[in-house]
Specification:
Blueprint (H helix, E strand, L loop, with lengths): L1 H7 L13 H17 L9 H19 L2 E2 L6 E2 L3 H7 L5 H17 L6 H7 L15 H5 L2
Antiparallel strand pairs: 1-2
Helix pairs in contact: 1-2, 2-3
Length: 145
Amino acid sequence: MKSTNVCCHPVQNILPSSLLSKNIKIKIYRTIVLPLVWYGCETWSLTLREKRRLRVFENRVVRRIFGPKTDEVTGEWRKLLSEELNDLYCSPNIVRVIKWKRMRWEWHVARMGERRGAYRVLVGKPQGKRPLGEPRIILKLVFRK
């Protein structure tokens, strides 16, 4: 998760800038930041904690792009709520895109031949019992002839 913050660091001064339009900022986010975040996401196992952290990251970046909003009643500045961000930034959320990319990769691996290692890992079942307290050895499954 540190990599998501690291990839956003070079553009953190550009996103809140008033010199660029919101459309340009969204294009920068989609073309520079998101591909760096998505790199290798096909192999991730997303836990609830990671999903929440990815959504927080995305909301933080989108809040920087759109900036604060004045409250109609009090006239004070406030942060945009998540529902308001979803209305302003009409794009599938980051977790949904990662799930879609994982499904696309699984479909690609399922179409591979039986001799390919990735296919054997996807459909293979470990045989035998492992010794108590030792991790399963997946390499035997992958490279077994």
